[in-house]
Amino acid sequence: MVAVSRCLGSLAVVFGCAAGARIAKKKRGLDQSAATCGQRPGRPVPMTDDAGIQIVNGRDAPRDTWPWQIDLGGCGATILSPEWLMSAAHCGSPRTAYAGLHNRSQTSDGQQRSIVQWVRHPSYGSPTSISNDLLLLRVDPPFTFGEGVGAACLPASEPPAGGEAWITGWGTLSAGGSRPDILQEAAVDIKSNAECAIAYGQSSITDDMICANGNNNGGTTDACQGDSGGPMVYEDGGKWFLIGATSWGRGCASPSYPGVWARTAYHQEWITQNSGVAPTFPGPTPAPVPTPEPPTPAPGTWEVSGSGCSLSGSCISSNNHPSDYENSALCTINLFGDIPLRVDAFSTESSFDFLTMGGTRYSGSEGPPSGTYSGSVRWESDSSVVNSGWRICRSDSPSPSPVPTPAPTTAPPSPPAPSPPSGNCNSLCDRESDCTNYPNICSGCSFC
């Protein structure tokens, strides 16, 4: 069984697929925001038997939908941050990286950066010749994030076997075939390592590897030569995570042999230590805030709903009582717990306008008896004859005390008017002598 890397053989001399790489000595600071990684415009359209043979048996990717895809010429890579890319160690030491491309031949459409640092995994090639196949690349100046250019998230945990992932690249359309100009995409199913080992043998599949392939239009979807180092991503909680860098396989798109990628979650600590890019946790879609249940009224209380009743103090009555109620009146009185009620007045149109209490409907002049009720009381009138209606009061509430009649106010007795003296007292009388001299007009004076 021959393990074939997904690096283009024709460019092996240029990129040195098996060549060594300088190991980074300087750790750079954190340069990725967890809030901005793993974002793309919507979800990819499901694979539904698309015709054609791309990446292999994939399809053309819509423009700007995989913003972390990098073209290295003979390999691919994935943006982890504006400065750092992830590729495959067997891609050697590429010198230039292009981001934001849709058509790989139109490099002026994207951003071109020089690669200034190569950090190959120190255990690359052990225990198997293709184990730990990861390569960190630093570009200078950093990429500018925007439409069509952005980072995939570094995962903090492993993806589940059986989950759907997506692969992208400009690799050959079949083993030894031609390369497309337009970026290709395909959905693949993640395989367990145990399942993958059945195909390749237990010693060939190590914990640092992850396997996948898919099916489209009756053909197997897989990466191929020229896709090496490119991304396999998995969506979780609205974010896209880089779970694998395209590494190797037996041929391309063989249904018996899944493709093999270098597992990034297995190497998360090494990636963070050398690039400063921290892992991101999935951002689950927030559950809608539940509408709080309305508070339950306290036992022994009542409430009125509808417009046909009026609440006044500890009594409820039909509207306008004791005057006539309206046509088409409707209301409900909800009783919370057992409440003692007395019926103070009742007069409705017999057989047409009903007050329902204790499960019994009452109309006419025979209203419900006073007693303890629970549940609800319902009042409804029709659209014809009206009457004075009804009035129900709580019998556990004391009736209003009668207003005392004020005692009549007694006016203080008037002082007795002085008894007028007998006789006359003309204003001309002014001395005692007048009493004798003029008795007819002065004898009544006080000084007489």
List the helices and strands and how they pair.
Blueprint: E1 4-5, H1 12-15, E2 59-60, E3 69-71, E4 76-79, E5 84-87, E6 96-99, E7 111-120, E8 135-140, E9 164-169, E10 184-191, H2 193-200, E11 209-216, E12 219-221, E13 231-236, E14 239-249, E15 259-263, H3 268-275, E16 301-306, E17 309-312, E18 315-318, E19 330-347, E20 354-357, E21 360-362, E22 371-380, E23 389-394, H4 432-437, H5 439-442
Antiparallel strand pairs: 1-14, 2-10, 3-4, 3-6, 4-5, 5-8, 6-7, 7-8, 9-10, 9-13, 10-11, 11-12, 11-15, 13-14, 14-15, 16-19, 17-18, 18-23, 19-22, 19-23, 20-21, 20-22
Radius of gyration based on Cα positions: 49 Å
Record field, number of beta strands: 23
Biggest sheet layout: 8 strands, antiparallel
β-strand percent reads: 25-35%
Helical percentage: under 10%
Shape descriptor reads elongated
Q: Secondary-structure element order, as H and E?
A: EHEEEEEEEEEHEEEEEHEEEEEEEEHH
Please report the number of helical segments: 5
What low-confidence regions span 5 or more consecutive residues with pLDDT below 50?
A: 9-33, 49-54, 399-403, 417-422
- Average of per-residue pLDDT values: 83
The end-to-end span amounts to 164 Å
The structure class reads mainly beta
Characterization of this structure:
The chain is mainly beta and 448 residues long. The chain is 7% helix and 31% strand. It contains five helices and 23 strands. The longest helix has 8 residues, at 193-200.
